[in-house]
Amino acid sequence: MFKVTADDLDGYFGFDPERESDLRKFDGLIREAAPSLRRHFHEGTPAGSAGMRMKMIGYGRFRYSIRSGKSTDWPVIGVALQKSYISVYLSVTVDSRPIVDRYRGRLGEIRSGRNNFSFVRYDELKSEIVAELIAETAEILSADPANPVRYREEA
C-alpha cells in the first residue's frame, strides 16, 4: 500500500509535488460542484476500527458502523494518492447501487471499482461528467443524509 505521511491538508496536497496540481484542480472541481461538502483531512482509521487506514482528502462526513459494532467517521467523497494514480471514493448509492455505476466509462478514468474510480492526470478526466457525479452525490446526501450510512453498512 502507498503510504502518505502528511499530517494535514497542506501536507497532503504537497506530498507529491508532481501531482499537487492535479490534486488542487480536482479539489477545485469538487468544491465548485458540491460546496455543501466541507473539505477536511482524513487521517485514516486506527487499526482495529472500521474503515481504511489510508490518509486522504475528505469532503463531507458521516458515521457508520460495521457488523462488529465498531464505527468511524468517514468522508462522503474521499480523494487519495496512490503510487501511480489518484483514487476517488464515493459513499452514496442510487437505487441501492453504487453511484459510480451510472458514470462508469464516461469519466475519463483509468479504472473503476465498486464505488470508486482512479485517474492519473486531471486533464485526462471529462471534468463536466465528473462534476455531474460530484454534484449528484451532494444532492443525494442533502435529500437523504442516511444514504452513505446504509451503503457502508451493506458493503
Spell out the blueprint of helices and strands:
Blueprint: H1 9-14, H2 20-33, E1 39-42, E2 56-65, E3 71-81, E4 86-90, E5 93-94, E6 97-98, E7 111-112, E8 116-119, H3 127-143, H4 147-154
Antiparallel strand pairs: 1-2, 2-3, 3-4, 4-8, 5-6, 7-8
Helix pairs in contact: 2-3
Could you explain how this protein is built, in words?
The chain has 155 residues and is α+β, with helices and mostly antiparallel strands. The protein has one domain (9-154). It is 29% helix and 26% strand. The chain has helices at 9-14, 20-33, 127-143, 147-154; strands at residues 39-42, 56-65, 71-81, 86-90, 93-94, 97-98, 111-112, 116-119. Strand 7 (111-112) and strand 8 form a beta hairpin. Helix 2 packs across helix 3 (127-143).
Q: Which strand order spans the largest sheet, edge to edge or round the barrel?
A: 1-2-3-4-8-7
Counted up, domains total 1
User: Structural class, judged by helices and strands?
Assistant: alpha+beta
Strand element count: 8
Gross morphology: globular
- The low-confidence parts are none
Secondary structure tally, helices: 4
Largest sheet, strands/sense/barrel = 6 strands, antiparallel
Mean pLDDT rating: 90
Order of helices and strands: HHEEEEEEEEHH
Distance between the termini: 21 Å
